[in-house]
Specification:
Layout lengths: L3 E13 L9 E12 L10 E7 L5 E8 L7 H16 L4 H14 L7 E9 L4 E7 L4 E4 L5 E3 L18 E4 L5 E5 L1 H4 L11 H14 L4 H12 L8 E9 L20
Antiparallel strand pairs: 1-2, 2-11, 3-4, 4-5, 5-6, 6-9, 7-8, 7-10, 10-11
């Protein structure tokens, strides 16, 4: 039985204006999907939390937290850390400030493995800009309409290590008709038993592209593709958040395919 305990599609439409004159307003649609699947198909929450929520000013807050360990026994710690991160974002804190709040919550929690990787971002559909902070998070990238993948590098070490955490923010321009993708190592490190053929960034991007071409849920498809790659099993809790930006087809050059062959950049 599938155990998708956090999965939601959110669609927002906002008017986006560039620095140059455009005929009327350019309507940009932002669709955010998220999915979490526990290892061994355990029901209920687990050690991964994936969040994508609209803020009152039409921006989108995204959070992904993956605490050490897996399964339902890690859900309380994961929930505590992710809640601290999200509260800071909602209070208009920067993603770096939000990760610092998550680190504080992690250190205050009585736990034998007080470590976590985390990612927080604020996406502004009107400007097409995202500000993010990444604490040791590996699988994060933007994907443009031509299939190019641009990794989003970590801006801080993982949470909970015995060092003062000084996270910083990074800014990235969201591609028009492109994607903002983050996933836990349960996705990126998924591999067949006894092998070292990790799922990785390339396969993750391809799974997102396939889902968009078929009008599917890209976060759900990403986690499921990682599971299939490992032989219909997971070695760890797996989660993903995918934010897809699109503009009306009339604003694109005629006859230009939306998702041609996948390429890797950088």
């Amino acid at each position: 039985m599938l155990s998708w305990h956090t999965k939601r599609m959110t669609t927002l439409s906002v008017s986006a204006y560039g620095d140059h004159t455009v005929p009327g307003s350019l309507r940009r649609t932002i669709r955010a999907s998220r999915a979490v699947r526990a290892v061994h198909d355990e029901p209920g929450p687990c050690g991964d939390v994936a969040i994508a929520v609209p803020l009152p000013d039409a921006r989108i807050a995204t959070v992904l937290v993956d605490v050490a360990g897996h399964g339902q026994s890690r859900s309380l710690l994961a929930s505590s850390v992710s809640s601290a991160v999200l509260r800071r974002l909602i209070a208009d804190g920067s993603p770096a400030e939000a990760l610092a709040a998550g680190d504080d919550a992690l250190r205050a929690f009585p736990d034998d493995l007080p470590y976590a990787v985390a990612f927080a971002a604020i996406l502004n559909p009107a400007t097409g800009v995202a500000i993010y902070a990444s604490a040791g998070h590996d699988l994060a990238f933007t994907l443009d309409r031509d299939g190019r993948v641009y990794p989003l590098r970590p801006t801080a070490p993982m949470l909970g290590i015995p060092l003062t955490l000084n996270p910083c923010d990074a800014l990235v321009q969201l591609p028009e008709q492109g994607c903002f993708v983050i996933a836990s190592d349960g996705v990126g490190d998924s591999r067949p038993e006894g092998e070292y053929d990790f799922f990785g960034r390339h396969r993750a991007a391809a799974a997102v592209v396939r889902a968009l071409r078929s009008a599917g849920d890209p976060a759900h498809a990403l986690v499921e593709a990682a599971r299939a790659h490992a032989g219909d099993r997971l070695c760890d809790d797996a989660s993903a958040v995918v934010v897809h930006c699109s503009i009306p087809a009339v604003a694109s050059p005629p006859h230009e395919p939306a998702w041609p062959a996948l390429k890797l950049a950088g």
